[in-house]
Design brief:
Elements (H helix, E strand, L loop, with lengths): L7 E4 L3 E6 L22 E6 L16 H16 L4 E6 L1 H12 L4 E7 L18 E2 L9 H8 L4 E2 L1 H17 L4 H8 L7 H5 L5 E7 L8 H7 L5 E6 L6 H4 L1 H19 L2
Parallel strand pairs: 2-3, 2-4, 4-5, 5-8, 6-7, 8-9
Antiparallel strand pairs: 1-3
Helix pairs in contact: 1-2, 3-4
């Protein structure tokens, strides 16, 4: 695997935080978090396009979720050596984060898991009943393919929410539209262990944030994971789906900035 071909958007200076997106997206899906960081250079953000996705296509042979994990392990070993860091994982990125917590248990100070994929196989997930709240009418000129993609996960339907989806989520969906690796990952989504097994000896803090109306991964499986953890917080947000950071940005900002304050307290001498 050639980690030099992996796309990483590094922003800021300070303590490193690795940002891992969902499937089949790219780093743009987590860029809304940029507005949550102060301009005090405390944090260096590593927005990664996961191996085989986005601008990290062609970096190596990717045929399973385990291949993506091994590529990330290699990157972290070469980029960070013995340095400590934290991880923000969204959906599939959160699943990978749990496995990284076992591999780098002494280096990862804290995990922030957003809409985490805790059950890799869709058929085994506990999902809520579909719910959509129509907040405002959509522009009739919206591209129908974009509208179809938006309505696959939307909870709070409005023009403003669609605009956020188009800016942050759609770029990853479009970049992976003809990506054969997406098919491989869909067919081989499981890692070697379950998240609870990966995290059973992890001593860092874990914050899990879910949407009550998430029809992609749900919230109940994530709560079951939370119940197994040593030092953890669990939040379930009403009227929020799989793109909960777009649905309820003010609440996510409050939770995330609190996580940053706690992380700062842990890493400040």
């Amino acid at each position: 695997m050639n980690i030099e071909k992996m796309y990483v958007n590094k922003i800021g200076k300070g303590y490193p935080i690795i940002m891992l997106h969902g499937f089949p997206l790219d780093h743009n899906s987590l860029m809304p978090f940029e507005s949550y960081f102060d301009e005090d250079n405390k944090w260096q953000r590593y927005y990664i396009d996961l191996p085989g996705m986005g601008q990290s296509r062609g970096a190596g042979v990717i045929q399973s979720a385990s291949d993506v994990l091994q590529f990330l392990i290699q990157y972290i070993e070469e980029e960070f050596n013995d340095r400590k860091f934290a991880i923000v994982g969204y959906s599939f990125g959160a699943l990978l984060a749990t496995a990284l917590a076992e591999q780098f248990s002494d280096q990862i100070e804290s995990l922030f898991l957003l809409a985490p994929e805790t059950e890799a196989e869709t058929a085994k997930r506990t999902l809520p009943k579909r719910a959509v709240y129509h907040m405002s009418n959509l522009d009739s000129r919206i591209d129908q393919d974009e509208l179809l993609a938006y309505r696959a996960t939307v909870v709070l339907e409005s023009q403003d929410n669609f605009n956020l989806f188009k800016k942050y989520i759609l770029p990853g969906l479009n970049s992976n539209e003809d990506n054969e690796i997406v098919r491989y990952l869909s067919e081989n989504p499981k890692l070697a262990k379950e998240p609870s097994e990966y995290l059973k000896s992890y001593k860092g803090s874990v914050t899990i944030v879910t949407g009550q109306n998430d029809n992609m991964v749900g919230f109940q499986d994530a709560f079951s994971l939370y119940c197994t953890l040593q030092e953890a917080e669990f939040v379930c947000i009403s009227k929020a789906g799989h793109t909960l950071h777009l649905d309820r940005p003010a609440i996510i900002k409050e939770i995330f900035t609190d996580w940053l304050r706690n992380l700062n307290a842990r890493v400040t001498p």
